[in-house]
Structure formats: structure tokens, C-alpha cells
Design goal:
Layout (H helix, E strand, L loop, with lengths): L2 H10 L1 H38 L4 E6 L8 H8 L4 E16 L2 E10 L3 H4 L4 E4 L4 H6 L3 E5 H7 L9 E6 L2 E11 L5 H5 L7 E5 H8 L6 E6 L5 H16 L4 E4 L2 H43 L1 H9 L4 H38 L7 H9 L10 H7 L1 H14 L2 H17 L1
Parallel strand pairs: 3-8, 5-7
Antiparallel strand pairs: 1-9, 1-10, 2-3, 2-6, 2-9, 4-7, 5-8, 6-7
Length: 413
């Protein structure tokens, strides 16, 4: 019972075999596409959340007399699960552009602002290390301020006057940052719509402070954010005292959203798994029909001395090959569809076989719901009984046995 013999049996009833393979392929395709869509969607949403600063934590003093310094930044930056920390100076004030006077929040930042608080320049550039050393009056503004005042986003080179202690100081705009990405903006709940970023050294010179108002901490994306936040709280409690530091973060919201996404993907995968159950029924039906069509052939083989297990093995090999071919086609089509989906949303797709198998196992189980191969094996005993019944009830079988026996004896002579 070789591969060529199995393929010949499949080719003999190629129309029915093609339809059965199609049913298997559709079931595998559904599970593959839904699992891939869930993977791509989760990655895309997590990327968006990272851009919003979900992996950033804001540390600030909660009690009077508590100051944040370089030693605190070093301590936080050295914690496990933390990728970096940067100082922040903050002041709510007003700024003037041309003849418009708008409320804004001025943030003193360093060269790591693009990485730690998710700043992205859409025009010009961000603050770099040389700006910190010079402590010059330069700034990066929120694009919303530019739209509000100039009616366009690119106002690099223009002058912004910022009110510090009742006195306006002029700053030259070196860049315009994309709005809505900074975790600071998200944590402020839109209480202050416009942001202006200046070198923290400039903010310290203007305010006369040597300490920092806040510290922004970037968490490791690959680690457990909640554990890292607990380490931050413990570290600051040991250094500054219990209850003296306030921690602002969005990790709990991210965890809830991840749970919702996982539940939705599992529910969709379960629905897709129903198609696997339908495919298994299709394989069983095809095998039963095949047995009915090949009664005469079965009788001849049994008259030649073929054992039941060998005949059952032929049909099981045929059904297994149908399932294998259908599965290969379904996986290939599903991966191609997933690749197209990834290109459409700008997210790369890498097939994770452990996730695929987990989703496939979520399919309904039981006599009608196991995978196609298991379903065909489950009918082995039933097929054997049918063949035994046909063997006993078919009078031609005895004649075939006698005729074939005579042929064998003639051959021996």
C-alpha cells in the first residue's frame, strides 16, 4: 500500500476528493486567518499603545519638601524592567504666538524625549544634547498650537513668547511635535491642550531650581510592566519614604485591553473551529460513500486473502492523504491572506505555530468535532463491520474466491 496506490485511489474519485479537500482547506484556512488576524491586531494595538506612552511611567513628588535629583534618575534607570529615565520640569503658563495668547504647559526635557515620552517631530528636529549644554532659548511645540495660531503645522523658525513668573521670554521654534502621542498628554486628560518642550537646563536656569519636578521612566516592552512598576514604587519608597511619591501609569488599562483582545480572538477561533468539525464530517461522508462504491473491489480483495486491517488501512491512508493535502492548501492560503492583511495595516506577520495549535485545539471536540484525521480513524471499526456484512451477504464473493483460487492453481501448474 504505497503512496502511488493511495494517490490512484484519490484520483479515481477526484471530484469527490477535491470537494473533501476543499472542506478541510476551508477549515484550516479559517483558523489560520483568524489566529493571524488576532496576532496582527494585538501587535498593532500594542504598538499604538506604546506610541501613546503606555510603557512610560511618571514619577513626581507628592509631599512638600521632597525633591527629585540625578541620584533618583540613576536609581530608577538601573532597575530591572526599566529601559531608561529622564528628568522633567513642568509649569502651567501662557504663551504668545503672533497675536494669539493660549494656555499651555511647558515641559523641560532632555535628548531622550523621543524615546521615553514618545515625542515625534513632524517638522524640524527635537532637542539634542548640545541644546542641553548651551541651555539656549529654543523650543519644540505641539502641532495643535501651530494650527491654532498660524493655521499650519510647519512654523519652524518662528518665535514663541512664554510667560515665566509674569515675564515673557522668547523662544525660537526648532521643531513641531506630533500631538496625542506623549504619555504626559494622556495622563493630563486634556486639561491642558497645548504643550511646549524646552531643554530642562533652560527651565532650571529660568526657575532657579537644581532639582527636577518629575521623572519619566520607560519600561521594557518585553517585561512585565506591573512588576517593574512595583519595583519603581519600592525603590522610591525606600529612598524618599512611603507615600511621598506619586506614580502615574497606564499599564493596568493595557492589561485589561490585552485580556479583551485575547477573549475576542479565542471566541472567533472557536467559531472558526466549527468549520473543522464540518470538514471532519465531510471526510467521514466521503469515506462511507467510497466504501459503498467499492463493495465489489473489497470482496475481491478479501477473497484473495486480504485482512480487514489492511483494507481499513487503505481507506484510512486515503482519508489521511486527503486531509494532509487539504491542510497544506489551507495553511498556504491562510498565510498568504495573513501576509496581505499585515501589509494592509503595516504590520509584519510571523506565523506562530504554538498559537495556531492552541486555537485549533479550541475547536469543538467529540465524534463529529475532532480533527479530520481523527474522524476518519474513528470510522475504522464501522467500515470493517460494513465490509464483513457485505462479504456475508454478497453471493458473488464465493464465486470470485473459487475463480481466483482456480487462477492461482493454474498459475502454480
Amino acid at each position: 500500500m504505497g503512496l502511488m496506490s493511495v494517490m490512484a485511489d484519490i484520483w479515481r474519485s477526484r471530484s469527490r476528493s477535491a470537494l473533501t479537500m476543499s472542506a478541510v482547506a476551508i477549515g484550516i484556512f479559517s483558523v489560520t486567518v483568524i489566529s493571524a488576524a488576532g496576532q496582527i491586531g494585538t501587535a498593532k494595538i500594542n504598538e499604538s499603545l506604546d506610541d501613546m506612552g503606555v510603557n512610560s511611567v511618571l514619577v513626581e513628588a507628592q509631599e512638600a519638601g521632597v525633591a527629585l535629583s540625578d541620584s533618583d534618575i540613576d536609581a530608577l534607570g538601573g532597575l530591572s524592567g526599566v529601559n531608561g529615565a529622564m528628568p522633567l520640569m513642568a509649569q502651567v503658563t501662557k504663551c504668545e504666538l503672533i497675536e494669539s495668547n493660549v494656555s499651555c504647559m511647558v515641559w523641560g526635557v532632555n535628548e531622550k524625549a523621543d524615546e521615553i515620552i514618545s515625542m515625534k517631530a513632524i517638522h524640524g528636529r527635537l532637542i539634542d544634547r548640545s541644546d542641553l549644554k548651551k541651555a539656549e532659548n529654543i523650543c519644540v511645540i505641539d502641532e495643535e498650537i501651530a494650527l491654532e495660531t498660524y493655521g499650519r503645522t510647519n512654523i519652524v523658525g518662528k518665535t514663541v513668547s512664554v510667560n515665566f513668573g509674569g515675564k515673557y521670554t522668547d523662544f525660537t521654534v526648532i521643531g513641531v511635535a506630533e500631538s496625542g502621542l506623549s504619555p504626559i498628554q494622556n495622563m493630563m486628560n486634556d486639561a491642558v491642550p497645548y504643550f511646549v518642550y524646552i531643554p530642562y537646563t533652560t527651565a532650571q536656569n529660568i526657575s532657579g531650581k537644581s532639582e527636577y519636578d518629575k521623572i519619566a521612566v520607560l519600561l521594557d516592552k518585553s517585561g512585565d510592566g506591573e512588576i517593574a512598576i512595583d519595583r519603581i514604587k519600592t525603590c522610591m519608597a525606600n529612598v524618599k519614604g512611603e507615600g511621598s511619591i506619586k506614580i502615574s501609569e497606564l499599564q493596568s488599562q493595557k492589561k485589561q485591553l490585552d485580556g479583551i483582545l485575547a477573549a475576542a480572538t479565542s471566541a472567533l477561533s472557536f467559531t472558526a473551529g466549527i468549520s473543522l468539525a464540518v470538514a471532519s464530517v465531510s471526510v467521514m461522508t466521503a469515506m462511507l460513500v467510497s466504501v459503498g462504491e467499492r463493495k465489489r473491489e473489497i470482496g475481491i480483495k478479501k477473497s484473495l486473502g486480504a485482512r480487514n486491517i489492511r483494507i481499513v488501512g487503505e481507506f484510512l491512508a486515503e482519508s489521511t492523504m486527503i486531509c494532509i493535502i487539504g491542510s497544506i492548501v489551507g495553511i498556504a492560503a491562510g498565510c498568504a491572506a495573513a501576509f496581505v492583511i499585515g501589509l494592509a495595516v503595516g504590520e509584519s506577520f510571523v506565523m506562530q505555530t504554538d498559537i495556531m495549535l492552541e486555537k485549533a485545539d479550541a475547536a469543538p471536540t467529540g465524534p463529529a468535532g475532532d480533527h479530520a484525521d481523527a474522524a476518519s480513524w474513528g470510522h475504522g471499526t464501522a467500515l470493517s463491520r460494513i465490509w464483513e456484512r457485505d462479504h456475508r451477504s454478497t453471493p458473488d464473493v464465493g464465486r470470485h474466491r473459487t475463480a481466483l483460487s482456480g487462477v492461482r492453481q493454474g498459475d502454480h501448474r
